[in-house]
Amino acid sequence: MENRTHISVQGLNVHIRREHVLKDINLSIPDRKITAIIGPSGCGKTTLLRSFNRLIDATEGVRVSGRVLVDDEDILDPRAEVTHIRKKMGLLLQKPFPLPMSIYENVAYGPRIHGIRDRRRLDGIVECFLRKASLWDEVSGRLSQPASALSLGQQQRLCLARGLAVEPAIILGDEPTSALDPQSSQRIEQTFTELKRDYTIVIVTHILRQARRLADHVVFLYLGELVEQGPAWDFFNNPKHPMTREYIKGLIS
Amino acid sequence: MKDAIAGKTMLALTLFAVLLVLLMIAGLYLKSRPVLSSHSLGELFFSTRWRPFRGQFGFLPFILGTLWVTGVAMLIAVPLCLLTAIYLSEYAPARVREWVKPLIDILAGIPSVVFGVWGMLVVVPFIKDTVAPAFKVFSTGYSVLAGGIVLAIMVFPVIIHVTLEVLRAVPSEVREASLALGATRWQTVKRVVLRKALPGVAAAVVLGIARAFGETMAVLMVVGNVPKVPKSVLDPAYPLPALIANNYGEMLSVPLYDSALMLAALILLLVILAFNVASRLVLRRVERSLR
User: Fold this and answer.
1) Nearest 10 degrees: Cα torsion B50, B54, B55, B58
2) Of B179, B181, B186, which to mutate for an interface test with A (greatest number of A Cβ within 10 Å)?
3) Is A19 left (phi over 0), alpha (psi -120 to 50) or beta?
4) Contacts of residue B252, Cβ cutoff 8 Å, sequence gap at least 6
5) Which of helix, strand or coil describes residue B110?
6) Is residue B122 scored above 90 in pLDDT?
7) Pairing of strands A89-92, A170-174
8) B173 to chain A nearest CA, in Å?
9) Can you tell me the distance from the alpha carbon of B58 to that of A168, in angstroms, rounded to the nearest whole number?
């Protein structure tokens, strides 16, 4: 399979107030692969992820410069339409945050916002994406119940279905399994490996083992700087940078 | 030993403060017994005849007067306060929010007489010379509308403050979840944030109503104080608190008059108490559920 680049980051700098959070980041994220962004906490992983869908805009006192190309469109361009960019990416947060409505409405929320009103079409969408997130069998009989009634692991899969329902090309996960029990984490991971056939997946994780299990491509950040990036096998078996070696051995944390 | 005494004393004082409310309710009830025993509740609450000299005490004009003024105030205040709170919570930069919040709270500290004077000097003439002629009716300006406008401004701080707190308590991740799906900020506010905050917003409004219900001075100064059921917002009205404030101490030679006023006070106290307790309970539950 050819290695097409889906997201390309060029000279990205992010300042939050007086802090230089991301320093001149250059990297490329391959299409339809799982890319793991790893690094110790506070290294800017989440900030990097949030600049991909411009949720970073909401941060108080933020300044962003550089270019982030998604499908060759610079999403940091002030003329770029934010809602359009965000529609291209599904986001999973650390903890699931279902919207204050029913299971059905959670999944239908995105499509409705983007103008789909037809009930039968919505029904189809809801079922399709709940299946994709491997949640359908557990909830098909109680779609009208409030989403908050689900278990944490189910909620996270619901959030995944909700994100998929706007038909993004990219899934962003910000430590998407860190609040879940091992079994639920495993299900999410499994779903990710199934989904990478159709989606580009970028996850932030501080669990090295998870990165090893899942990632095809790894990006290692340390203190706001890009230390090393590359295919997962090379990264873990033949790290080039001494810092990477130490991090993999668990010396830096 | 000294510490124990100090502790007990303070406990006693605290209990006294709580008891005070109960004592007041009991006192008002005892005082209003005479009028309650000589008149039926139906007559007291549903008769429009207020002729104390003939022993007729129909509270309906006053109850309706209170409801009209409060209703008009809420119609004006609720949309304005909601939009203000939404702006401050969802759109304004943190710096603006930190500046505006205390300014709004200062509004709550202005003595109500000042609002009353402002109402008499500005709102009343405005209604008399501009609003009423526009509808081709005559009004002295002392009216339900004047009372409603003045009251609306007086309840702004309560409603804005509480609504803002409730909106800020909605976790930012819920907003992000909606924004990340490509929703606009307004869609997010309308469909997610407000829905999540709805019970709290309702409680804020009820707190505002409770405040409006009992406000006396400013309303009394602009509302006209005519004991008749108002037929439009340009008619004068006579709310319950104004009735008590205007007459207590002056008309007490009339038999049963003081008892009737105490009944009015009792009704006010109970209604406001109920509103306060209900909204505080809701707010507590909201806070817990959002955390």
Assistant:
1) -20
2) B181
3) beta
4) B258
5) coil
6) yes
7) parallel
8) 7
9) 67
Structure tokens at A240: 């080039």
Residue with tokens 């098909």: A140
Domains defined along chain B, listed by start: 60-252+271-290 (1.10.3720.10)
Q: Among A25, A34, A32, which residue's Cα sits nearest to residue A4?
A: A32
Listed as own residue / partner, the contacts of B95-102 with beta carbons closer than 8 Å and 24 or more positions apart are: B101/B161, B101/B164
Phi, then psi, of B188 in degrees rounded to 5: -65, -45
In this predicted structure, what is the pLDDT of residue B163? 95
Report which of A173, A158, A197 is spatially closest to residue A52, judged by C-alpha positions. A173
Beta-carbon separation of B180 and A86 below 8 A: yes
Residues found in chain B: 291
Could you give the C-alpha distances from A42 to A47, A120, A253, in angstroms and in order?
9, 45, 10
Question: What distance in Å separates the CA atoms of residue B123 and residue B151, rounded to the nearest whole number?
Answer: 11
ipTM rounded to 2 decimals: 0.88
Q: What is the pLDDT of residues A120-144, one digit of tens each?
A: 999 999 999 999 898 999 999 999 9
> CA quadruple B166, B71, B280, B24: dihedral positive or negative?
positive
Nearest Cβ partner of B182 from A83, A97, A101? Answer: A83
Least Cα separation, residue A91 to chain B (angstroms):
6
What is the chain B residue with the closest CA to A86? B182
SS3 letters across chain A? CCCCEEEEEEEEEEEECCEEEEEEEEEEEECCCEEEEECCCCCCHHHHHHHHCCHHHHCCCEEEEEEEEECCEECCCCCCCHHHHHHCEEEECCCCCCCCCEHHHHHHHHHHHCCCCCHHHHHHHHHHHHHHCCCHHHHHHHCCCEHHHCCHHHHHHHHHHHHHCCCCCEEEEECCCCCCCHHHHHHHHHHHHHHCCCCEEEEECCCHHHHHHHCCEEEEEECCEEEEEEEHHHHHHCCCCHHHHHHHHCCCC
Whole-number Å distance between alpha carbons of A64 and A57: 9
| A186-243 pLDDT tens trace | 989 999 999 999 999 999 998 888 999 999 999 999 999 999 999 999 999 999 999 8
CB atoms within 10 A of CB B95: 10
Tell me how close the Cα of A193 comes to any Cα of chain B, in angstroms: 22
Separation of alpha carbons B231 and B61, rounded Å: 11
Q: Which tokens is B142 given?
A: 């002392």
Q: Name the residue ranges covered by the structural domains of chain A.
A: 98-167
How many CB atoms sit inside 10 A of residue B286's CB?
A: 23
Angle at which helix A119-132 crosses helix A152-164, to 10 degrees, equals 120
Query: Which residue in this structure is represented by tokens 């959030």?
Result: A159
Which residue in B has a C-alpha nearest to residue A163's C-alpha?
Answer: B181
User: Which phi and psi angles does A70 have, rounded to 5°?
Assistant: -120, 120
